[in-house]
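User: I'm curious whether this sequence folds into something compact or stays loose and floppy. Could you predict its structure so I can see for myself?
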Amino acid sequence: MLATSLLSLALGSLGALAAALAGFPAPFLTGPAAVVSLAGIAGLQCAVPTLLRNACFIVIGLGLGTSVSPEILADALKWPASLLGMAGSVSVIMIFGAWLLRRGFACDGRTAVLGSAPGHLSFVLGLSLETGANTAFISVVQSLRVLFLTLVTPAAIALATDADLSARPAPTALLSLPHLALLATLAVAAGFALGRLRAPAAFLLGGMAVSVIGHGSGLTPGGMPLRLTDAAMVCMGTLIGTRFTGVRLAQIRQAALAAFVLTGGSIALVVLTALAVVSLVDLPLTDVVLALAPGGLETMIAMSAAVGADPAFVGFHHVARMFLLSALIPAAMAHASRADRT
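Assistant: Here's the prediction. I'll summarize afterward.
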């Protein structure tokens, strides 16, 4: 396991270096994701240890909380429009995605619903195992969806806005070591507590919550060391890529077209919805696109930090999407099961 992990992280680091030198958007996230994914498909065993994954989530979460300020509370009055946009886009993606998988790819109703679900991967895969849906197909489609979103979303933002996504954040005063140690300790405790409550991305949300409180109150001022956050981003990108370890090329071929069509349609809908939202309220287009993009919770929050968006805004919308999907997916599954029996 140690050798596999070291190889995976080495490949991720090489991917990050290559992406940074090439000037790719969010290079420390997209570079490792692309390289490790290709390695897994080629047959290499790739993995990131659970302990390192959780540590990575804590570092990213702590870094995200440093962006919080009292002004965010006033800005929250502008968020209902984007939340309605999120709910509408999620519903449309599920309805038309399930229809497409049934009609175009001959999926049964349960597989179509779970394959089209825009996020909540662990919940989706758990339901697929319990209900007898095609778990292999769903897993590949959903993993490709996350990978496509990780690689395409920064490019879409770069094309739609004038944001420089390869730029480094401006330097800020750093957290003192005692404050950093205190926040990290509290984040570990919060992560374990949220994990017991079965919260998604428990350690990331725990780190973010602790950091938000510390920075929002002014008790722990300062930012995270850039080298530490860069390393955490490389780990996150590597983790995304490991989802393709052991996946056969035949499985990729079968599900790739479905994933490509679903993801392309989702991104187009998200961009259109984001444009509608920013025409109604004064919000940055980059922030709204990331808040509505149906990627993984951890990935989209991490990407918001990588491209200079507001992590609190993005994270709030993605947590809300998890709760919405927790209600929509079982209802859609029940409807699909009744339709399959008729």
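Summary: The chain has 15 helices and no strands. The chain has one domain: 54-235+248-341.
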